[in-house]
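Mods, move this if it's the wrong board.
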Amino acid sequence: MDDRIYWLGWQLLMPGAGKRLWHLVEHFGSPRAAWEAGVKELAEAPGIGEEGPGGLARRKAALDPVREAGRLESMGITFVCHTDPCYPENLLAIYDPPPVIFVRGSLKSSDKLSVAVVGSRRPSPYGQLVAGKLARDLAATGITVVSGMARGIDSAAHRGALEGGGRTLAVLGCGPDVVYPRENRRLMEKIINNGAVISEYPPGTPPEPWRFPVRNRIISGLARGTVVVEAAEKSGALITADFALDQGRDVMAVPGNVTSPLSRGPHRLIKQGARLVEGAGDVLDEIGLENLFPVKKDEPGEAVKMSREEEAVYSLLSVDPVPLDEIIGRSGLTPQKAMAALMYLELKGLARQMPGKFYTRTERNVF
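Not the wrong board. Structure tokens:
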């Protein structure tokens, strides 16, 4: 058996153990050597936990990783080891990534360009509207939206990403086969078909409260930045923001009504230096997306490069406002691609949005 199978065995035995599992395997030199260790050797190793070496050894003896791998396959669940090429690059860079994650759906290299959108489980209508629109606009530009599939802001973010025709990743605080909350069954199916459901917990693991703060490090770890939409002063969303800061990722927040308790979390983050977000353009700017727009330096005026879609949309703009519906119809692009092109043109300073969903051209040198 290769090391992947032994890593799977340890993840099944110690889900959510974080650094304890890494320290245990590091002590023995490999997951196989750790798996083959007896009670005496385990007693000398770090990271065993409260059950002690005897309890761990008994559970290890009763578990067959090869059989478990077959069971996962029959359930449509993929186990992805940290040594696999498809293991998320962003997640691998954090302090304590799970050695193995359980996945329903698909992981893609493009998921490296992702943003987490999190917030209250009991948001205001404003919060749900903003989260959905923000995720929809980000997804339309090719950003993968990450969240936790909880009620409220998380669910609104996933739905917005799907409406934007993009990808979304849901990180669960339970097994990947457990639907929580129950009313999100259809949403979970859509996420699996347009992204992935991810968990470090084995199938069947119940959604116990302590698991959710632990999984929040994965939400922030998968993303280039985290946006908090609405959150009370003591909120799981703020835990995610703290993880993002510890991981060296960008933290952003959407301002809200100053009289609402749900605004206290985002406003506190803004006071501490988080980027104030009014729309998707602020997020793209914060995570450094302007680096994807090379500027030709050897011509006067700094000409800006455009994609084919952007050129098609830009050619329809003028100094007089043009309605969005006309831009979509005449460009021949899907609404999602046309809106994405307009957003990129705005970021490049080539277009400006006017009230009533009208757009005008901003003259600059292009090529």
